[in-house]
Amino acid sequence: MQEHVSDPFVGTLVDNRYAVRSRLARGGMSTVYLAVDQRLERDVALKVLHPHLSTDESFIARLGREAKAAARLSHPHVVGVLDQGNDGTTAYLVMEYIKGHTLRDVINSKGALPPRLALALIDPVVEGLAAAHAAGFIHRDVKPENVLISDDGRIKIGDFGLARAVTTSTSSGTLMGTVAYVSPELVLGKPADARSDVYSVGIMLFEMLTGQQPFDGEVPIQVAYQHVNGTVGPPSALVPGLAGEVDELVQWCTANDPENRPVDGNALLHELRHIRTHLTDAELDLQPPAAPDPAGSPHRTEFIARTSNPTSILPSGRPAPPPYVPLQGQESSDRNPGHAAHGSHILTPPGEDAEEAWAPPTPLPSKRAQRKAEKEEEKARARAAATPARTLREGNPRRRGVLWVVVLVLAALLATGAGWFFGMGPGAAATIPEVANKTVAQAQQVLSDAGFRSTTSDVFDENVPTGLVVGSEPGAGTEIRKFQPVSLFVSKGPQLFPLPQLTGGTLDEAKNALNAAGMALGTVTEEFNEEAPAGVVLSQDPASGTPVRRGTPVGMAVSKGPEPIPVPSVVGQDEKDAEDAIEAAGLRAEVAREEVFDRNIPEGAVVSQSPASGTLTRGGTVTLTISKGPRMVEVPSYIGRQATEARRALEALGFQVRVNEVLGGFFGTVRDQDPVDTEVPEGSVITLTVV
Fold first, then answer.
1. What is the 8-class DSSP label of residue 674?
2. CA distances to 42, 519, 554, 556, 620 from 537, in Å
3. Quick check: helix, strand or coil at residue 479?
4. What is the pLDDT of residue 668?
5. 141 part of the active site
6. pLDDT recorded at residue 442
7. Structural domain boundaries in the chain
8. The whole model's pTM is what?
9. Which string of b and e fits 500-526 if b means at least 16 CB within 10 Å?
10. Which residues contact 337 (CB under 8 A, 6 or more apart)?
């Protein structure tokens, strides 16, 4: 779900390429928008540096380093960086858009997770970090908000904005990270390496297993102090029955001394998978106890979740102050399940609302400074002593009275004017009325009646009809001074995008094209086609190039290939009749060159066909073999010879033999034969008369 926030940036086109659709999240240094890459027609996450920072060369350089570093990472569990650039005063970074939710949402909704689910969710995170560590990068801000889970179940670790190549520069500069998950060495300003990410993973796994974080405090600096001076306890203390191997894994990752942790993400990944494969089903499916009453547990996850775990910034090279130092955390973060972008959590002295800075307790002044302060104090006392307590010329008392009257009258007039201005005039505070779904004229009239002046700008909106007001900035219900302008966002209707060409490709290719264009798959029908192979898209509805909304279902007709035709049997039919029957079925008849003798099939009829059965596609060939009729064979005479010999010889020539016995055929001699000494068809009957 996207966050519907009135934002003047929504509806604009960045760098003549990225059309901004909606705001996803806002952080301390940047705002993340859902945008459409019009060149490639795909959704992207557009990270835009805040305007007050876009002129800061150090922040621009940091954004450039972020793009170059993250673009070098290509892994299925790491959010990809696609582009980076500047459009006037707008500095931006283009990232892969992951539609779904974050691991923080999972923890907030489910609380403590069973070990099987917790280990399965953390596995791709560690695999992504292992790839980053192998490429020479560290993340520095591993937390549930940066673990993105897409709607199709893919898990990726995002926001490598704080990652930088492992060089000597990692030991200097500003410490950036989330206090709830920051490693002790980062709090102390020591160099960060892959083991710092491993520590954060251990804290995150502790929270997933128990539903709460190991350390908390009223202000973030107290949590940082506990990371340095405390020890992460075993999760089984909060989840009885948890396997000892899981306790050891968490405490191995969260050891205070980096030397006692896994050396990098790859080492942790091997151990994690070893544990997953060796735990029993009962240990993996252990159900954690029900979450405690929020009023009774000071260490519940919800306390941290309400702060959205913003990124904290501390100066490196300084020890963490004790927890009683009166510092307070401030944050600015809008979080969205579809794509996370997190703001900076700044530790500042109470009452300050400036950019992030943390200062240690003020040290005691030196003796030299004390002597200098004492001299300055003596000079101040001398100047005060030299100044007369009253004027030497008191002047006319009546004139002074008139002057006081004038001053008081002027003060009264100014007070009256100020009271009118701020009480009933343009400076009076008023609440912005609701103007959504009104016409521009109606909305302007409503604002005018309330004492506001307004401007308009056009934006795309999927739900509000064209010409009606989507909302205002500031939003309805906000109290401002009447002289402050109000911006009205007027709907241009839904943004339409041309449908891609789907015909001619395979069904899988068409599905990928629809996903890339943000469209939905409609009804798919199949039909026979004599030209297109099976699986090829024949047509689409709506047609390609038709401007439609995102998510429009597109129907397709897909080829099943040529229609199979049963081969008819024509054996025994006359040659012409057989050819007509085959061609009527949509096939082609072909007669073999050689004809054959056949005692059963008359001359000119089909003796055999190939194929004899089965199916062919339209236009397939059936080969016919034609009969020459029976073979003509000379019948020799066997008169006077024994009947047994005659029968055997005649049958060998292919004749059938019939014997007529006279007087019982006592002698077995052939007395007569019919036919004899002539040619007859093979298989004819030869009659022998035997005596």
1. E
2. 22, 16, 12, 7, 24
3. strand
4. 87
5. yes
6. 92
7. 13-96, 100-170+180-307, 444-491, 497-559, 564-626, 632-690
8. 0.46
9. bebeebbbeebbebbeebbbeeeeeee
10. 1, 100, 101, 102, 105
Is 62 buried (19+), middle (13-18) or exposed (0-12) by CB count in 10 A? Answer: buried
User: Architecture of domain 13-96 in CATH?
Assistant: 2-Layer Sandwich (3.30)
At how many degrees (to 10) do helices 115-134 and 194-210 cross? Answer: 170
Query: What residues are paired with 615 via a beta bridge?
Result: 566
Separation between Cα atoms, residue 212 and residue 208, nearest integer Å: 7
DSSP letter assigned to residue 234 = P
Tell me which DSSP letter residue 177 carries: E
CB atoms within 10 A of CB 379: 9
CA–CA distance, 457 with 472 (Å, rounded to integer): 10
Mean pLDDT in consecutive groups of 10 residues from the start of the chain, 691 residues: 64 93 80 92 88 70 70 85 84 89 93 95 95 86 91 86 38 53 89 92 97 88 88 96 96 96 95 94 90 44 38 43 32 38 33 32 40 53 45 50 72 62 62 90 90 86 87 85 85 87 91 87 91 92 89 91 92 92 92 88 91 90 91 88 90 89 83 89 87 81
Tokens of 552: 């429009």
CATH of the domain spanning 444-491, picked from 3.30.10.20, 3.40.50.720, 3.40.50.450, 3.40.50.510: 3.30.10.20
Out of 7, 141, 197, 461, which one is annotated catalytic? Answer: 141
Longest CA pairwise span in the chain (Å): 188
- Quote the pLDDT of residue 276: 92
Position 395: which residue type? G
Q: Domain 497-559 adopts which CATH fold? A: Trypsin Inhibitor V; Chain A (3.30.10)
Alpha helices in 491-627 (DSSP H): 507-517, 575-584
The span from the CA of 339 to the CA of 148, in Å, is 7
Half-sphere exposure of 303 (CA within 13 A, CB side): 21
Six token digits for residue 681: 């068809």
Q: Is 315 helix (H, G, I), strand (E, B) or coil?
A: strand
Give the contacts of 522 (CB within 8 A, at least 6 positions apart). Answer: 541, 553, 554, 555, 556
- For 360, counting Cβ atoms within 10 Å of its Cβ (0-12 exposed, 13-18 middle, 19+ buried), the class is exposed
Q: What is the pLDDT of residue 483?
A: 76
Q: What is the pLDDT of residue 427?
A: 61
Element (H or E) spanning 200, and its range? Answer: helix 194-210
